[in-house]
Predict the 3D structure of the following.
Amino acid sequence: MRAAQLTAWRAPLEIATLPDPEPAPDGVVLRVMACGVCRSDWHAWTGADPDVSLPHVPGHEYCGEVVAVGARVARWRIGDRVIAPFILACGQCPDCTAGNQTICATQVIPGFTGPGAFAEYVRVDHADANLTALPAQMAPEIAAALGCRVTTAWHALTGRAQLRGGEWLAVIGGGGIGLSALILGRALGARVVVVDVVPEKLEYARKLGAHAVVNAAETDAAEAVREITGGGADVAVEALGIEATTVTALTSLRKLGRMVQVGMPAGDHASMSLPMDRIYSGQLAVYGTRGMPAWRYPALLDLLSAQSVDLRPLITRTISLSMASDELAAFDHPAPPGVAVITDFTS
C-alpha cells in the first residue's frame, strides 16, 4: 500500500510502499476514504509524543470501507462504510464495560501506538466494540472529523462539562476542536465566545455563529470574556494544550464554572503553572478529556440529524497524501481557518 511515513522528527513525510495490513482476529482492515490532519499529528511529527517511535505512519482521524474481516468479528462485513474513534478500546475490561472506553488499559491508537491512516489502508482492532456505521448521506471528509475533532468536542461539552442551553461557552482556540465546539455548543443552545490570535479565524468563527470573538493578541482575553458574559463563562474549552491558553480558559470563568482541557499538553507544556488560587476561590471544576467512548456516537449522530447541524464549514481544504507534510509544518505557526483532510491517497 501507499503510505506517508515519518522517518525523522520534523522532516517531510516520505511516500513509501508498505505491506498491506492484516486484520487481527477481532479486527478489520479499512480502505481509508478520508483522514484528517490534526494538531495531535503535529505533536507526533515533532517528537513530543512518547508513544511514537520511528519509522511511523501518522493519522488517527479517519473513516473507511471494510476490506478484510477477522474471524471473531460479528458486526461488520466487507463493503461496510464505517467511522472509527481514534481510541480503539478492548470492549471487555472493567473500564470498558462501565462505559469508560477512553481509559481502557489495553487501548490501541492508530497513528500513535500503531500504524495510522496516512495510508491507503489501516488496521482497526476490536472492531465490534468501536466501529459505527457511516451515515449514508455524510461525505467521507466530514465523517473523518467524527473520529477525533467533533467527537472530542462533543464529549468535552456533554460528557464532561454538561453544557446546558443558555449558558456561556468560552472556546479558547479557533482550530478544528474550537470550531467543532462552537458548532456543537450553538446546537446545544449555548452562547459562544471564541478566543484566538488570528483575525481570519475569528472572522470565520463569527460567520459560523459565534456570539462574540476576542483577539488575545490585542487585549486581555480572559478579562474580555468576563466582560462580554457579564461575569465569566459557565464553561470554557481549552483547545490548544499550552499554558497561556489554559490560564486564559481558567480565568475567563465565573465562580462555579467548569473548564475542560481538550488541547493535548505535550513537550514543554506537559507541566504547567496554573492559578490554583482562582480554582480554589472560584470553586472551579477542571476536567480532562481525551476522545469519546464509541457508545456515544448515536447521541451525537441523532443531534446532527435532528437539528440539521452543518459540519461542512469545518473542512476548508481537501488534499492529497503528498501534501500532508505541508499541513503538519503549518502547525508551527498560526494556521488558516478550518481543517485539512486527505481524500486523495494516490498522489
